[in-house]
Design brief:
Structural class: mainly beta
Distance between the termini: 44 Å
Number of strands: 11
CATH topology of the largest domain: Thiol Ester Dehydrase, Chain A
Strand content: 35-45%
CATH class of the largest domain: Alpha Beta
Shape: globular
CATH architecture of the largest domain: Roll
CATH superfamily of the largest domain: Hotdog Thioesterase
Largest sheet: 11 strands, antiparallel
Order of helices and strands: EHHEEEEEEHEEEE
């Protein structure tokens, strides 16, 4: 279990900023395992996150400090849950999150057993673990756009960084969610997207929840649901992105 303190942007706090913090501390947590991204590349391996769920007690404020504690649960079926507790600068609870992570062979893109590849997992069972991430909701599509994956959104594994999917979702919403407080975020990453891939992004909302779904050549790529503490201020549909 490790704890680190981060500072949020002085300007607008995007969802991707929060998940980038979770990725950063997860990367720091595996340093002692000798399983950082660059080390795994030399072994022909990589970390992938399969699913996330994050709940928030209140809106995050630009510029505030965020203290995050993380630890990994034991590996089951080649996957492990990484747990996160979030606190503000005065140690008041802000939220909690869980991510399902797996070790994947870079060539075959298949999950592998960490122990079989010589990676010693340091795990704990504390009783504070958040529930296993649930599947995001899915609603019939109301709006669609096309999104082309560029080199700028790729990560060390040569596919679209998971945090970038949240940017796509927020860009689709535009100003419709301004002033609303996120309470729960669920995400499932179903297939990787690489440079040049064309994604069909669909989304719809019901009351206080907006659901996004991404397809790549008729193959599901990702699924997100954003739940807000209160519903949208009008009954009008979420406006379609330009």
């Amino acid at each position: 279990m490790i704890t680190e303190t981060f500072s949020l942007s002085e300007e607008r706090v995007r969802i991707s900023d929060l998940f980038r913090i979770l990725q950063d501390i997860a990367g720091d947590a595996v340093v002692s395992w000798h399983a950082t991204g660059p080390e795994l590349i030399k072994m022909g391996l990589m970390w992938v996150v399969i699913r996330y769920e994050l709940t928030l007690e209140r809106a995050l404020r630009p510029g505030e400090s965020l203290r995050v504690t993380t630890w990994a649960s034991p590996v089951r079926h080649k996957m492990s849950q990484r747990n996160y507790l979030l606190f503000d600068g005065e140690d008041r609870p802000l939220g909690r999150a869980a991510g399902i992570w797996a070790l994947v062979d870079r060539e075959t893109r298949a999950m592998v057993d960490p122990e079989g590849r010589g990676i010693l997992f340091e795990t704990e069972e504390t009783g504070l673990e958040p529930p296993r991430p649930a599947s995001p909701e899915k609603l019939p599509a109301e709006h669609r756009i096309s999104f082309t994956v560029s080199d700028e959104v790729l990560d060390i594994n040569d596919h679209m960084n998971n945090t970038r999917y949240f940017d796509v979702a927020e860009d689709c919403l535009g100003s419709d969610a301004d002033g609303l407080t996120l309470s729960r975020i669920r995400a499932a990453f179903l297939n990787e997207a690489r440079a040049g891939d064309e994604l069909l992004i669909s989304w719809a909302r019901r009351e206080n929840t907006v659901c996004f779904y991404g397809m790549k050549q008729n193959t599901p790529c990702f699924q997100l649901s954003l739940e807000y503490a209160k519903g949208f201020p009008s009954g009008e549909a979420v406006s379609e992105a330009d």
